[in-house]
Amino acid sequence: MLETSRLYSFLDHKNGFNIHFLEGQKLIHDLVLLHPMQASGFAYFRDTFLGLLPIIFFLKPGESLGLYIDSEDPYFRLKIETNSSGHTRTLLLPEEFNLFPMKISGKVRVTKIFHGHQTPYTSMIELKEVPTKEVINQIFNESYQTNSEVIVSEISDQSIMVTKLPPLNVNSNIDESQSRKEFVKKHGPFFHDVFEMAIDDIEKIVKLFEDHGFSYLGSRQISFFCPCTKDRMILNLRGLFSGDIDELFLEEDTVEIKCDYCRKVYEISKAEVINN
Description:
CATH superfamily of the largest domain: Hsp33 domain
Oligomer: single chain
Number of strands: 13
Order of helices and strands: EEHHEEEEEHEEHHEEHHEEH
Largest sheet: 6 strands, mixed
Strand order of the largest sheet: 7-6-3-4-5-11
CATH topology of the largest domain: Hsp33 domain
CATH architecture of the largest domain: 3-Layer(bab) Sandwich
Number of helices: 8
Helix content: 25-40%
């Protein structure tokens, strides 16, 4: 049985880098069950999902984040919503999407909800024939303005995000001469070995990174969670069919509604929609 997926954080004190390791094997296993896509479409879904989730590290307690990619060429809609607790849900439309695009043109909307604030912060990023694997890094660099790079494994359902920290965030003995690209190149063989081992055990993962010279900062669980409820579905139906309730229930007194995110099916009666 696969262990619950986790996002691990480590620190390179000497050079001033954060290393975030997403062990996502259970997540991708569950993703397959939730969204039965095939071929290149699912491969793109998987890569983007693993690449974006390390952004959870930047969320403070109580904060949540929505990432929405509206691609026009090729046409698709990708939604990833997550929060500081690691509760995540995602959706790719159309369901029959079966491409792994080489370049993407469209828009990315990043919506961040702060704890105790009703008004979210939203930023927009334009994509103009951006190479697929660079979309993730463009989101990090433009929306979060971090000096980060994400590496998605091709051999295991895992990813690593490397972030170069500002001098104020590390000790005064830091060696600032090493760039992010140099750091990634230097530790590339180690990252490859980590992916090749495909470990999901907490103690083994922590020891592996500590033996390489990185200090362990902590980890958090990442799992699928959808807040949909029958009451929410009823409210949605009332809003969508406020003047056409009878037409909605023209053939039967009940309808089945499926959540696009978690695929859960709700059976809703006409009486439940009409009664407040």
